[in-house]
Amino acid sequence: MNKPLLHITHFQGKREQPLHNVFIHAPTLYWVEQGHKQLWWQEQSYEFNRANWLVVPAGQYLTFVNTPMQNSFHARAVTFFQPPPAEWLNQEASSGGSAPMVKVNDALRYCFEIICDMSNKDLSVHTQQQLLLAFYAELRHIGALHLLFPNDNQQVRDKLATYLSAAPGDDHKIEVAAQHLAMSRATLTRKLAAEETSFRHILTEIRMSHALGLLQRKFSQMDTALACGYQSEVRFTQRFKEQFGLTPRQYQMTL
């Protein structure tokens, strides 16, 4: 089974949605098509709407408020699992202080719609890879590719997060994850510690992000808890509130 090149998530809302500490486990692009998103990023505030994209590299935490327009908020999030060629990234000048914003033009919009629609067509994996490269090439053309991919050196935490995100609710063991990443448990633990994180911490972050998507799809609170690997709904609710600043029920009330 081929690994997906990308994943598309739809976010809806009828009321204001304030969220903090939303973990981005892989490079992700958000396009707010109805309403707007107010983001706090490196001590500055940015507003995103139809005219611009929010582009975020892996390993970031986002704090934002989604605000509906005419009682409706809608955004598409595209998470990318295949990076562009390493030489493209090495040639791009990266600035750590860059705003995570790309102004949408007709060429970008065209390429974006193609990659969002390609999974619905009977296309070979190779063809889909080429279409994705075309999208990356357009971002590179305007000097924005580094916003999604700051460099070609993927951290261990990002590799682990991608692995865990394939099945967030499974009973994951660090030994199995280490084997998947071709290293020993001790090596994985040491490398994660060097990146100031841990296996358990990343697994929890992945499960909480997964919970947001399930609640968006109208899963009940109990079903969401079970799908995220929690046997206790109370424990799940506590962890959700610690992470995002509101309970699952409060989040459901905004949908």
UniProtKB/TrEMBL annotation:
GO terms for molecular function: DNA-binding transcription factor activity; transcription cis-regulatory region binding. It holds the Pfam family HTH_18. Keywords: DNA-binding, Transcription, Transcription regulation. Residues 158-254 form the HTH araC/xylS-type domain. InterPro entries: Homeodomain-like_sf (IPR009057), HTH_AraC (IPR018060). GO terms for cellular component: cytosol. This is AraC/XylS family transcriptional regulator.
